């Protein structure tokens, strides 16, 4: 990968790699023979070319980020070093792979991740298409009819996307089809400031579209044009085109970030950090966000515990974590996977989230009955959230209407009740007798005004402990106070229930 971002590497060992390998211009490699104090510089990658001493291990733990530690075959992974490698998800690297890694892989460890979804409102329909066109908010657009016998442009995005020199992008197209329709994605790179000078041209058929598509800009900065071609007859639903800065084979959004996808092309994302490998595991569900990626990384990392960040990228900023059985099983699978890796039970897990994230925490908390749920601005009756868009919160959260249509295929009173029951039936069927529910909520909430009161009335399990704090304002009026209390309650639970002290 060619990258203009500076990547800083610290190498611990007897030999200085600056004299043994070709170091690309964008990489600064600092060599040290010992590691007895925390460096002032922030390093993207650490390489151990000898077994660290015990006194070095603790400092390395404090300095190194998970998934950014590489050890050569000279390192003996036992005792404290094995603990360091587990807690920081260290990776072995063979001597013969070091040069290739420095030249081709290190650039993927840049600092600032980014991902978004192309605006559906920017989608244009080819004027030559004579079939029916149906728009469904941010749930997509459906074209039904004959597309012709050869591949022709069906839709296109009106605005080109800039791409920098050396940038690698991940593309993912969400679509569905019926009949004998075939599709392909076409990407054209134009020179900056030109609509005629083509620098590169990519075509991806349906076999290619089964996987994440990576395109690399091997030219100067330019602009990318995107369109979808189709042939055959039937229905083609274009749901979304996602674009993300690529990390190559090293993860999604963050190094080590994972992506799971259903047969319907719906994605979820997970990032696990083992921390000090001691209870609890803090599971955090991201809230509504149009910029794709993980939320809560720095808050959870500061706590020092193992943590798991969960995120999704459907609709405009998320679809409240519910879906088909296949979709929901991805969340339960990944949570169980890391509980098993750590050897933790439900009593050693905390679920948490803010706003949309509270729904995920409560919904999947029903499956795990964690030790505690720490929630800020809870949302439970999502059908009511959509209803409140008309009178209580006009144009405040239109995504709620998309969520109602997406999950219930309608927007009437029966669909509202169906979506509400989806949550409460599951909540009522769970045993909360061993859990703490710690909730901060807005007293004049205009999304789900009675969420806290209904949680209180539906908690019928003996032994359940509920802690609530009301703050004046509407749903988005005082997020700072909600977050402050949210963090303070995390610290209190960790101190009182797990004998943990938070280091500043």
SSE topology:
Elements: E1 7-12, E2 27-32, E3 45-48, H1 54-63, E4 69-71, H2 80-87, E5 91-92, H3 98-105, E6 115-117, E7 123-125, E8 132-135, E9 141-157, E10 161-163, E11 168-179, E12 182-191, E13 198-204, E14 213-216, E15 222-245, E16 251-252, E17 254-255, E18 258-261, E19 267-273, E20 281-285, H4 297-303, E21 307-312, H5 325-342, E22 349-354, H6 356-368, E23 372-376, H7 382-387, H8 399-408, H9 413-428, E24 436-442, H10 451-458, E25 465-471, H11 479-498
Parallel strand pairs: 1-2, 1-3, 3-4, 4-5, 20-21, 20-22, 22-23, 23-24, 24-25
Antiparallel strand pairs: 6-15, 7-9, 8-9, 9-15, 10-15, 11-14, 11-15, 12-13, 12-15, 16-17, 18-19, 19-21
**Distance between the amino and carboxyl termini:** 37 Å
Total strand count, please?
25
- Summarize the main sheet: 10 strands, antiparallel
pLDDT average, as an integer?
96
State the share of residues found in helices, binned by percent.
10-25%
Oligomer state of the chains in this structure: single chain
Radius of gyration: 25 Å
The percent range for strand residues is: 25-35%
């Amino acid at each position: 990968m060619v990258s203009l971002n500076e990547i800083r590497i610290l190498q611990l060992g007897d030999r200085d790699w600056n004299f043994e390998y070709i170091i690309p211009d964008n990489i600064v490699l600092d060599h040290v023979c010992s590691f007895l104090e925390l460096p002032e510089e922030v390093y993207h990658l650490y390489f151990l070319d000898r077994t660290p001493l015990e006194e070095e291990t603790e400092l390395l733990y404090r300095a190194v980020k998970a998934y950014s530690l590489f050890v050569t075959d000279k390192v003996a992974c036992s005792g404290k070093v094995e603990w360091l490698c587990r807690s920081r998800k260290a990776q072995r690297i063979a001597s013969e792979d070091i040069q290739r890694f420095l030249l081709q892989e290190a650039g993927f460890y840049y600092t600032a991740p980014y991902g978004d979804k192309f605006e559906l409102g920017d989608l244009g329909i080819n004027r030559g298409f004579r079939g029916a066109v149906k728009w469904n908010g941010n749930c997509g657009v459906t074209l039904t009819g004959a597309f012709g016998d050869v591949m022709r442009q069906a839709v296109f995005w009106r605005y080109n996307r800039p791409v920098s020199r050396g940038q690698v992008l991940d593309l993912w197209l969400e679509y569905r089809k019926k009949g004998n329709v075939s599709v392909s994605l076409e990407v054209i790179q134009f020179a900056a400031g030109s609509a005629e000078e083509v620098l590169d041209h990519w075509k991806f058929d349906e076999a290619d579209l089964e996987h994440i598509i990576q395109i690399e800009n091997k030219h100067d900065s330019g602009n990318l044009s995107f369109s979808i071609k189709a042939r055959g007859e039937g229905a083609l639903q274009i749901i979304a085109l996602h674009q993300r800065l690529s990390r190559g084979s090293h993860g999604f959004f963050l190094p080590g970030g994972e992506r799971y996808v259903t047969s319907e092309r719906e994605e979820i994302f997970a990032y696990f950090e083992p921390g000090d490998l001691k209870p609890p595991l803090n599971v955090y569900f991201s809230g509504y966000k149009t910029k794709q990626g993980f939320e809560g990384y720095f808050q959870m990392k500061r706590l020092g515990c193992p943590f798991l960040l969960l995120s999704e990228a459907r609709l405009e900023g998320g679809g409240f974590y519910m879906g088909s059985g296949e979709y929901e099983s991805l969340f339960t699978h990944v949570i169980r996977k890391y509980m098993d890796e750590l050897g933790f039970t439900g009593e050693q897990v905390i679920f948490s989230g803010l706003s949309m994230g509270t729904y995920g925490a409560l919904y999947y908390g029903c499956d795990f009955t964690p030790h505690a749920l720490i929630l800020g601005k809870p949302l439970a009756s999502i059908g009511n959230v959509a209803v409140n868009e008309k009178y209580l919160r006009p144009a405040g959260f239109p995504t709620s209407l998309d969520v109602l249509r997406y999950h219930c295929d309608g927007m009437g009173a029966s669909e509202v009740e169906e979506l509400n029951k989806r949550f409460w039936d599951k909540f009522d069927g769970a045993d909360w007798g061993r859990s703490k529910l710690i909730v901060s909520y807005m007293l004049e909430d205009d999304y789900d005004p009675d969420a806290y009161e209904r949680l209180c009335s539906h908690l019928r399990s003996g032994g359940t402990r509920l802690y609530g704090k009301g703050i004046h304002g509407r749903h988005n009026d005082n997020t700072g106070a909600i977050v402050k209390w949210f963090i303070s309650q995390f610290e209190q639970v960790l101190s009182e229930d797990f004998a943990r002290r938070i280091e500043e």
